[in-house]
Amino acid sequence: MAELPPQAEAFNKPKVELHVHLDGAIRVQTILDVAKRRGIHLPATTVEEMKQKIILHEPGTLTSFLEKFEEYMHVIAGDREAIKRIAYEFVEDKAKEGVIYVEVRYSPHLLANTKVDPVPWNQKEGDVSPDEVVRLVNEGLSEGGRAFKIKARSILCCMRHMPNWSMEVLELCKKYRHDGVVAIDLAGDESLNCKAYPNHRMAYEEAVRCGIHRTVHAGEVGPATVVREAVEVLKAERVGHGYSTLEDHALYKQLLDQNMHFEMCPVSSKYTGACNSDFSKHPIIRFRQDKANYSLNTDDPLIFNSTLQLDYSTAHKYMGFTEEEFKRLNIKSAESSFLPEEEKAELLDRLHEAYELIQSTAF
Ligand SMILES: O=c1[nH]cnc2c1ncn2[C@H]1C[C@H](O)[C@@H](CO)O1
Fold first, then answer.
1. Which residues are catalytic?
2. What was the ipTM of the complex prediction?
3. What residue ranges line ligand 1, CB within 6 angstroms?
4. Cα(219) to centroid of ligand 1, in Å?
5. Among the atoms of ligand 1, which is closest to the Cα of residue 189?
6. Ligand 1 centroid to residue 263 C-alpha, Å
7. CATH number of the domain at 15-349, please?
8. What is the pTM of this model?
9. Minimal CB count within 10 Å: which of 99, 279, 293, 337?
């Protein structure tokens, strides 16, 4: 595999990103600024020091990774200006990475401080509800979209350990379905399955009835049974991560045949311990060989100290990805996006043009 010159981008063309957490993609400087304004004490005063607290330096576990959010979420949650600002800055950062369409996800409840039970991050009860969080994020994303000339939509997350929030998340998806919100997700610790927590299932059943798009984190660190449950019980249209699908041959074949989309996050999968840290043995290689439908995504670039370029260069350098495959997977990502059909067609036109492909090119 040809080595890239230092600083060169593995794929310097317009990209689509479908799996990135807003609360895992905040600028460290913003956390420091907001903490200062709100008089919140942090264990660090410079970006470098704060980064050392937040980023994962070694491969760990999903649980140790999820604990990292406790370092800073209390700074942003419950603060209107901060919530809008992180959404706006997120769009700016994505535009710089060459992303032209992004679906960004978050839990409205984890950024609220009222009408949420329990109030997260040991905050005092305040007056920012999950509903207002969605409005603020929408404002930040649409102002950012206009300023930086890219399109950003959002996905609202249910959390596996908070089943009592799930119906409220679904209601927010319905309320804002024509105002920036394109789907529902289920994030958090995969060992908590839906049989034990029927509220998630009820929310997803209602999503199906209302035509709300659905993705589910499954098969990241959990077994293939979680993927099966996501697809068969929750009727997921896309799978978040899904690496362990490979353990169940029949399921893998079925999902390949169904053209199921897998939202893959190579750098993330190393640091969460989801996959072997030797990228040359990564499950994505198998998905690529089988011409599966998948995207490449950052997941939580703040915590992995990463960029989308790093995911692409990792795929290029250690997994043998070519320019042609990058084009193919971005076209697949656009096709699997949760945009309405007309907007999806426009996005596909833009990619075909940028990649100098004729419309009928079949991958
Ligand atoms: O990679 C992940 N797997 C499962 N849950 C995750 C991952 N990245 C972030 N989350 C959780 C923590 C966030 O607070 C939440 C909503 O974005 O989703």
1. 220
2. 0.99
3. 21, 23-24, 66, 69, 105-107, 110, 157, 187-188, 217, 220, 268, 272, 299-300
4. 14
5. 4
6. 13
7. 3.20.20.140
8. 0.96
9. 279
